[in-house]
Specification:
With 154 residues, the chain is an all-alpha fold. It has one domain: Ferritin, core subunit, four-helix bundle (Ferritin, Up-down Bundle). The chain contains four helices and no strands. Helix 1 runs antiparallel to helix 3, helix 2 packs antiparallel against helix 4 and helix 3 runs antiparallel to helix 4. The longest helix has 31 residues. The radius of gyration is 16 Å and the shape is elongated. The protein binds fe (ii) ion (2 copies). The site of one fe (ii) ion (FE2) has 5 residues, from helix 2. The site of one fe (ii) ion has 5 residues, from helix 3 and helix 4.
Length: 154
């Protein structure tokens, strides 16, 4: 693999790492922040997801290091998940569900980019991102189901 390709893959891995860390931060908040009967299942699901997203972040950090890249410290990260900020109304479960669907879709798309970029040049990264993408697709599908349910609430 040439240096240009390696750097392209590293840039995508660092972006993914940043996304995972931000997701962890916002899932922790929203797993505690919401109130009400309708929130309980969502809160538990987000709390359970934190460990899985943390596992993704650790796998990405390891891969970045293996490819001789620089794993960003906290001050090199950027924060963009506007739709996952804890809502002012703690009963607004719907906005959190929508934020999760958006974040998981973003993750699925990002891993797809990595799989294509890595391809035959870097099958190890492609394999890693294929495995993680499957997890994100499951999360996305689960919360799409929650969204369908929540949209019928009155
Ligand atoms: Fe993840
Ligand atoms: Fe996820």
């Amino acid at each position: 693999m040439d240096d240009v390709k390696r750097q392209q893959i590293l840039d995508l891995l660092v972006t993914s790492y940043n996304m995972e860390i931000e997701t962890i931060a916002n899932y922790i908040v929203n797993s505690e922040h919401l109130d009400g009967v309708r929130a309980q299942h969502i809160k538990q699901s987000l709390a359970d997801d934190v460990a899985e997203e943390l596992g993704h972040a650790q796998l990405l950090a390891k891969r970045i290091k293996t490819l001789d890249g620089n794993i960003p410290g906290s001050q090199s990260l950027s924060w963009t998940q506007t739709s996952l900020q804890p809502p002012a109304d703690t009963l607004d479960v719907l906005s959190v569900i929508k934020g999760v669907v958006e974040a998981e879709k973003g993750a699925v798309d990002q891993y797809q980019k990595l799989i294509i970029a890595a391809g035959d040049d870097d099958p190890v990264t492609a394999d890693l991102c294929t495995t993680i993408k499957a997890d994100e697709e499951e999360h996305h599908r689960l919360f799409k189901g929650f969204l369908t349910d929540a949209q019928r609430w009155t």
